[in-house]
Amino acid sequence: MFPIRDHNPSNRTPFVTYALIAANVIVFIGYWPLFSDERALSGFFDVWAMVPREISQGRELHTLLTSMFLHGGLMHIGGNMLFLWIFGDNLEDEMGHMGFLGFYLSAGVLAGLAQWLAAPASPVPTVGASGAIAGVMGGYILLFPRARVDVLIIFVIFFKVFPLPAWAMLGFWFGLQVFSGFGADATQGGVAYWAHAGGFLAGLGMTLPLWLRLGGPRFWNRTHGRPPHPEAKYGERTSPIPRVTRRRGRRW
Question: Domain Peptidase S54 rhomboid spans what residues (predicted)?
Fold first, then answer.
């Protein structure tokens, strides 16, 4: 289950969101050749990825920033950039370009610190924009809890798109991170669940002043938790290929 789009169009071009996506893709392409050499890739991550044990010793603090522009594979970066593309433009719309950039980077750093707190002695490198994007999701759920998000559900050979309110889709995602975090060993490799949960809460907290400035509960009452502008409408396109009727006749 993953989102494919929301019904919440932005009112201006989200230049920072596009730039962040481009930066992540460019960096990934830059070290893509290292994936064929495990030792070289490991050495690269040792320098630029966030290693909790190093942070505990006061070393390589720069990796709290650089690690959020690294990814462990095509599916990893593809999923992260999809989430950023869906939810980032609306927060940038409300926060402004530079405000959103500061918000995104701060959420990423706080997410990294949350993962560090979960396992300060771990030698496992942590990479990915997931923590920063989780912050975006936390801010989104506060401002637009009832914005509709189209979610693609895949079950074996069953494919179906369901529109869900943001609070349901993002709330379920957050709950899954917390549940999985308690069930996983943060000192081992795998998904950085506590970075996700920490980033989400950090984004929620950093968006709170904006929400209050917009009116707080009065903002929700005014918008009913939906976007403060007309929602996007999506419909199935009619195929441009004309239908051809079959005539009965001989077969050759």
Answer: 59-210
Residues belonging to the chain: 252
pLDDT of residue 163: 85
Domain-embedded: residue 239: no
Mean pLDDT along residues 209-216: 95
pLDDT, tens digit, for every residue of 111-133? 999 999 999 999 999 999 999 99
Measuring CA to CA, which residue among 14, 113, 24, 114 is closest to residue 68?
A: 24
The secondary structure of 51-100 as a DSSP string is -HHHHHTT--TTHHHHGGG--SSHHHHHHHHHHHHHHHHHHHHHH-HHHH
Q: Are 7 and 232 in contact (CB under 8 A)?
A: yes
Q: Which two tokens stand for residue 249?
A: 């006749």
Q: How many domains does the chain have?
A: 1
Contact criterion met (CB below 8 Å) for 120 and 56: yes
Is the predicted pLDDT of residue 25 greater than 50, yes or no? yes
DSSP designation for 164: E
For residue 61, give the CATH number of its domain: 1.20.1540.10
What domain range is 202 assigned to? Answer: 2-223
Closest CA to 63 of 73, 53, 55: 55
Residue 164 has pLDDT above 70, yes or no: yes
